Amino acid sequence: MKKLLPPSVFFAGAAACLLQAWRSYPLLPDRVASHFGLSGAPDGWMPKRAFVGFEVGVVLLLGAALLAASRSLSRRTNERLNLPHKDYWLAPERREATLAYFREFFLWFGAGTYAVLFDLFRQTDRVNLGLAKGLAHPLATIAAYVAFALVLIVAMNVRFRRVPPGA
Q1: Cα(73)–Cα(147) distance, rounded to whole angstroms?
Q2: ∠ CA(117), CA(118), CA(123), 5° rounding?
Q3: Residue 66 and residue 122: Cα distance in Å, rounded?
Q4: CA atoms of 112 and 105, how far apart (whole Å)
Q5: d(CA 124, CA 33)
Q6: What is the pLDDT confidence band of residue 164, given thresholds at 50, 70 and 90?
Q7: Is 108 exposed, middle or buried (0-12, 13-18, 19+ CB in 10 A)?
Q8: Where are the domains of the chain?
Q9: DSSP string covering 39-60
Q10: Residue 2 has pLDDT above 70, yes or no
């Protein structure tokens, strides 16, 4: 049985971002703040239609790119995959489990990215609806995302850096 949690969280994140864009569109003014400095203060504007279109495009493109990348792994030869101890990890009896790990990795990475996008979109909407003067916590959001990505990368390196003893 396939694990359902990673794809569920991935697609729920995408749906939440798209739902937020759909919900906020009629409420936004015609000209919206679309770029912010490190302090969170707006310093660039665009028409709301272009802005919401950009949000939706980012969400859809990210999802398509991550799903395509994860699915393309199984079509690659072992020589085209860069992995430490690949003779062990990509041996016929372990290849599918190794590739399943990477497919799951892409889904978790995408889910984390969608969480960051959702938070940034929400902060941006608050500014554009006049509920805030600037983004509430842009640096904290980015720091949390970097930490999340580092945890995923370290976990992947720990898993594949060594061949299990006795193998």
Answers
A1: 26
A2: 95
A3: 23
A4: 11
A5: 7
A6: confident
A7: middle
A8: 5-160
A9: TS-EEEEEEHHHHHHHHHHHHH
A10: no
